[in-house]
Amino acid sequence: MVENKNILLGVSGGIAVYKACALTSKLTQAGANVKVMMTENAAKFVSPLTFQALSRNPVYIDTFDEKDTKKIAHIDVADWADIVIIAPATANIIGKIAGGIADDMLSTTLLATQASIYVAPAMNVHMYAHPAVIQNMQQLEKWGYHFIEPGAGYLACGYVGKGRLEEPEQIVKVVQQHQAKSSILTGKKVLVSAGPTREQIDPVRFFTNRSTGKMGFALAEAAANFGAEVTLVSGPTNLELSKNNVRRIDVTTAEEMYEAMNHYFLESDIVIKAAAVADYRPKQVFQEKMKKQEGTWQIEMERTRDILQSLGEVKTHQFLVGFAAETTNVLDYGKNKLQKKQLDAIVINDVSTEGAGFGGDMNVATYLNKDLQSTELALSTKQEMAEKILTLIHRDMKDEAK
Length: 402
Ligand code: CTP
Fold this sequence. Notes:
By secondary structure, the protein is an alpha/beta fold. It has helices at 17-29, 42-45, 48-55, 73-80, 91-98, 105-112, 125-129, 131-142, 168-182, 214-225, 254-265, 307-314, 330-340, 382-401; strands at residues 6-11, 33-38, 83-89, 116-121, 146-147, 151-154, 160-164, 189-194, 199-202, 205-207, 229-234, 246-250, 270-273, 280-282, 301-303, 319-326, 345-350, 362-369, 374-381. Helix 13 links the parallel strand 16 (319-326) and strand 17 (345-350).
C-alpha cells in the first residue's frame, strides 16, 4: 500500500535519527518514492548524505536553499507528498506543529501539506508524560494526525520506559495497514449532516439544542480520510474542519437542512444524519423583538419535517444511516427508528451513560444494521468512533452487494 506513493520523511533531532535511516531504506524497498527533510539538529546526528544515498533523492534542510529556481521547494514538496512520516518526532517538532509555528523547513512544510501525516515520537520518558507534550499530541490527533506510539524499553538517556522510537519495520507496517484502510471509501460520495438546528422566535431569540456537531464533523473528516468525496451539511457550530477536503454547506433551520440534504441526496452513496434536528419550531416568527409583558408567554410550536424519514421514503441505492439519542429501552427505541425511517443502520447513543452523547470529545454507542446485527462501540474519541462506524458501513455495503 505504499508502493508508488510519494512519502516525505521528516526527521527531527533526537538520538533515534539513526533508525530513520533504516526506515528510509525499508520504505524505498517497499516501492515508495521517498524524500527526506531534516531539521538542522537532526543533521548533527546523521549526515544528510546517508539519507540522500538511501532515498536516492536530495535531502531538504534549509527553507532558503532553493534547488530549482522555478519552484518554491517547501510548497513543492508539501504538494508532492501523499504521505508524511515524522520519525523521530521530538517534543519540539510536536509542540511546533500544535502551536502553528513554522520557523524551519520541516515545520513550514508540515503546515503547507495536505497529505496524511504519521507521527512517530521519540523522547525521554518524562518528556513523553509531560502535560504540554500530551496536550500537543491530543491537539494533533484532533487535526487528524496519526500517531505511531513509541515502545517501552531502554532509552539513550539512561531511563527505562516509554519513549523509544517504534522499530522501522513496525512503522512501515502501521502505515501500510492504515493506507489500506484509507481507501475503503474511494469513489463513494458521502453526505453527512451535523450539529443542531436553530428555530427563530423573533430577531433575537431562537430554540436550539445541546448538539455541538463534533460527531458529524468527525464522520465527515473520517470519510474523507477513507477516500470518499464528502459533503457536510452543518447547523450552527463553532467547529472548523481541519482540512479542506470536505465540501461544507452551512444551514440554520431544520427546513434549510431539509433543502440542503435533498439537494445532495440523489448523487450520494452513503448518507449519515448525525444532526440533532429540531422536532418543533415556533408556529409564528415575530418580525420585531417581543417585549416582555405581565404573566406567562405561550409559544405555539409546530412539527418540522423529519428529514431522515423523508429520505428513507425516496432512497434508491443510498445507504442511509440515522442517529438516535435515548435514555431508556435504548435498543428497542433504536430498532423502531431504524425500521420506521427505513434506514440501513442506526447509531444509538444511550445518553444516560457517562461519556456518551452531546458536547464531549468521547462517545459510546451501539451500531445496529437492518439485519438487526448490533455492534457495541466502546467508549472512544469521536474520531475513533467515526472510523469504526464507517468501517461497519463499508462492511454492510459489501455484504449487500454480494
Ligand atoms: N431527524 C431528522 N429530522 C428531524 C428530526 C430528526 O432527520 N426533523 C433525524 C436525526 O438527524 C437523527 C434521527 O432523525 O438521525 C433521530 O431520530 P428522532 O426520531 O428524531 O429522534 P428523537 O428526536 O430523539 O425522537 P424521539 O423524540 O421520538 O425519541
